[in-house]
């Protein structure tokens, strides 16, 4: 029996929850290390361009799909394109969310381990080299990492099982503002470090000659990952949005917050990287080495490190909530009596499937699939293949399966969007977004090798 559709209780609750899907590990953890390995300022410039010209139009498109139908990802495509293969777009989203959750929860477990280490004083007084050794030992311990990953999954399941207003929205409204404030404080302190200007230049002064096809692909992948696009998370979240919500305003707010947090993350990490003699290309572990070293030089550093890790954990959880929610929503079909059972089954399945990724930095470090560890392979498949593919399909689906009149009316609901803004959005979504994604894909497989 289908129950009444849940809704966000407030406009700001929806914005915080959707922003939280990205501002956790997408901006704070992943952006610095991907930027560090992909050209720094050149990558950041491409990331901003892709966010504004591809990300925001696509985000609005996903918002329209979800609010117009009021259904989960899979059911949305079934309703708008019945008895067609377009439903595969929804399935791609659900499968990709599951894959991301398997390795995302691993990093969530690392945060828990580091939080425990910070509380017990194990990170105090350590040099950067010692912090690197400490991190390596921590994430190589199979028992600790698996237990931490499971604990992260269990908390995610508990919140999602409570539903939209009482679970996801309530948690997001508490976590996100506190995280913003602390990020600004840490960025200001990081900018006073000895090597701060080198770090700022690395992030904000792009060397266009360093741009390669891989840089472009990674920047596009990060723009999609950071806004949780191409996997229909935003379709599912917007299905809980009332008609009084301005979709363009919500999308713009989320896009600006996302770029701002990525900037803050870069201004926190890269000054520390150059101050402490690290390489920007250190990889996924970068933030766990640089941040404790920065806090070590601050007044009340241990307390602030603990506070940051708590908030970082909260931000990571808001992203995990959305990953699990899209899968759960596709299974329960608005029948709230099935939510608790579905949340537990899917969450524990993600934990089990994520065990190889969790062990990729320890006992399974030498086990590879397609030349990568399980962790890196899952990240590559989800971020650089499935998410762009899903984004391409959605950008084609919206103008093909929904009339201009329907799209314009949906966009006007709760906002004062005029015809000129609608035409600009429609053009970007229909022509620029799919063209850009296709070009990047073709170049990635070597068809435009003369670029290199």
Automatic annotation (TrEMBL):
This is Transporter. It is a multi-pass membrane protein. Keywords: Membrane, Symport, Transmembrane, Transmembrane helix, Transport. The chain crosses the membrane at residues 12-31, 43-65, 86-116, 143-164, 176-196, 216-237, 249-278, 298-324, 344-365, 385-402, 423-451. It comes from Alkalihalophilus lindianensis. The keyword Transmembrane applies. Its main location: membrane. It is found in: Membrane. It comes from the Bacteria. Belongs to the sodium:neurotransmitter symporter (SNF) (TC 2.A.22) family. Coiled coil: none annotated. Pfam families: SNF (PF00209).
């Amino acid at each position: 029996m289908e129950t009444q559709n849940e809704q966000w209780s407030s406009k700001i609750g929806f914005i915080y929850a959707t922003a939280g899907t990205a501002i956790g590990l997408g901006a704070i953890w992943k952006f610095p290390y991907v930027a560090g390995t992909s050209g720094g300022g050149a990558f950041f410039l491409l990331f901003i361009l892709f966010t504004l010209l591809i990300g925001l139009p696509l985000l609005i498109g996903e918002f329209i799909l979800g609010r117009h139908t009021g259904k989960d990802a899979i059911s949305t495509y079934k309703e708008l394109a019945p008895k067609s293969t377009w439903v595969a777009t929804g399935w791609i989203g659900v499968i990709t969310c599951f894959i991301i959750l398997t390795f995302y929860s691993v990093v969530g477990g690392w945060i828990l381990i580091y939080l425990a280490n910070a509380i017990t004083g194990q990170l105090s007084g350590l040099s950067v080299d010692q912090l690197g050794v400490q991190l390596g030992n921590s994430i190589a311990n199979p028992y600790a990492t698996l237990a931490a990953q499971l604990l992260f999954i269990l908390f995610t399941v508990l919140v999602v099982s409570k539903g939209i207003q009482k679970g996801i929205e309530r948690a997001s409204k508490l976590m996100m503002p506190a995280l913003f404030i602390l990020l600004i404080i840490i960025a200001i302190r990081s900018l006073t470090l000895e090597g701060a200007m080198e770090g700022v230049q690395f992030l904000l002064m792009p060397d266009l000659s360093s741009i390669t096809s891989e840089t472009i692909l990674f920047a596009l992948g990060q723009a999609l990952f950071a806004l949780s696009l191409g996997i229909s998370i935003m379709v599912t979240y917007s299905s809980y949005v009332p008609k009084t919500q301005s979709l363009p305003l919500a999308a713009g707010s989320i896009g600006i917050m996302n770029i701002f947090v990525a900037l803050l993350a870069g201004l926190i990490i890269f000054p520390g990287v150059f101050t402490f003699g690290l390489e920007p290309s250190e990889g996924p572990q970068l933030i766990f080495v640089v941040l404790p070293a920065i806090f070590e030089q601050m007044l009340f550093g241990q307390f602030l490190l603990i506070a940051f890790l708590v908030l970082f954990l909260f931000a990571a959880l808001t992203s995990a909530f959305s990953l699990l929610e899209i899968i759960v929503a596709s299974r329960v079909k608005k029948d709230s009596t099935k939510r608790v059972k579905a949340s537990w089954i899917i969450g524990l399945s993600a934990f089990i499937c994520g065990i190889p990724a969790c062990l990729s930095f320890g006992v399974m470090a030498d086990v590879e699939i397609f030349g990568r560890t399980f962790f890196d392979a899952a990240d590559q498949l989800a971020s650089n293949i499935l998410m762009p593919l899903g984004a391409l399909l959605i950008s084609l689906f919206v103008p093909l399966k929904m009339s201009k009149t329907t799209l314009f009316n949906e966009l006007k609901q709760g906002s004062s969007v005029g015809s000129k803004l609608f035409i600009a959005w429609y053009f970007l979504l229909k022509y620029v977004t799919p063209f850009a994604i296709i070009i990047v894909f073709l170049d990635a497989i070597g068809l435009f090798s003369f670029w290199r």
